Amino acid sequence: MAQGVPETQSKLTNPGTKNTMKITGYRVEQYEMKMDRPIGDANGVVGEDIAGGSVLWIETDEGITGVAPGGNPAVGRLFHLIEGEDPRSVVGLWMRLVDFVFKGGNEGEMNGAINAIDTALWDLKAKIADEPLWQTFGAREGMTKAYASGIDLCLDDDAIFAFYRRMAEHGVDGGKLKVGLDMKTDLRRIGIMQEALSVGSDRPRLLIDSNEYWSAKEAIIRIQRIEEDFDITWAEEPARRWDFDGLRQVSRNISAAVASGENLNHIGDFYPLVSQQAVDVVNISAGHSGFTGCRQVANLCYAYELPVTMMNCQANYAAHLAAALPNHMIMEVVDPGREQCINFNHTIEDGFIQLSDEPGLGISIDEDALARLQANPPEPERRRRNPFPRREGAGRFIVPPAKEEAGWLVG
């Protein structure tokens, strides 16, 4: 030891003197499932009750394993970047991953793999510290406000009322309805959602989502008409996700806030929307290059005094990050029954997602249930139309639902 250097300082400056945990392996399992009910929007009018799922495990030499919903075969093309590394170095490993995909782009399967790897590493980091992830992220408490989202264009009026009333009975005071194809129907169903939520609030938050089906001009016309009857908190994706000129035009011509961002991949995609003042509320998720990338987007928004809202996810696991973001507004919650092999203890009480104190994400995988899903996939002829392809006429003209699509139009 150098003369005059305290022993503790020497150990800090020579990390090789201590044993470090190492990442040793991974596993990805994919499956399909039939949900409890269909989901649908302006691009998927009939709706779909078949969904795909996957799980990523990242293993260490000390027997602690990180788990994350998500993952795909591209994980195998990236794993060499983290193998043998200390899993606690989450941000540094994230930088290595996104730098590696620089030339080809952080898109598609690569983006999905980075999302899952980063989330599993954060789960590992919190488990190593023996604390819930919300605490690792620096949240004061493990809770965040929720809003109900039916993904419900395919549901009839009774099902819409039942969903939002059930959520209101858990204290939820806001709801987001899918709209876009028929004004008369949209107005009636917004009223149904408002009535269902009114048991929890005299003035529930009313949100609408047209999923990029309208042009900017069409959005202005239709939202202005809706606002004659309802106080709308935000209109989501009223124009294309990358069309900052169109989104800004909508924002400046309606009373409601404009929300967008759900389908973007990373902070570079968000920069023009934020810097050009095209959006008033920013939709974020772990799909934005994992929790690390999502937090970057939220910090960018914070610099511009923009609120963010976390998108829905299985078991509401992203609420861990939402709870730690100073500009987080409310998080989307749905309940179509997607947690068929995921165990968790997170609940919705008094309008908030209440996270458990279990280490990490607070989720575990029921391996027997997973095996059953893999052994008994849905019938081939019913397999997925999800994500929904963009509907005919989008951005140009409204294509009314065909007769076989239009059961939900009946009041």
What this model shows, in words?
The structure is a single chain. The chain is an alpha/beta fold. It has 2 domains: 21-131, Enolase-like, N-terminal domain (Enolase-like, domain 1, 2-Layer Sandwich), CATH 3.30.390.10; 134-361, Alpha-Beta Barrel (TIM Barrel). The protein contains 13 helices and 15 strands. It has helices at 7-13, 75-78, 90-100, 108-128, 133-136, 157-168, 183-197, 216-227, 244-251, 267-275, 290-303, 319-322, 367-375, and strands at 23-39, 48-60, 66-69, 143-149, 174-178, 205-209, 232-236, 257-260, 281-284, 308-310, 331-333, 342-344, 347-349, 352-354, 363-365. Strands 4, 5, 6, 7, 8, 9, 10, 11, 13 and 14 form a 10-stranded mixed beta sheet that branches. Strands 1-2-3 form a 3-stranded antiparallel beta sheet. α9 (244-251) links the parallel β7 (232-236) and β8. α8 packs parallel to α9. Residues 1-17 have low confidence and may be disordered.
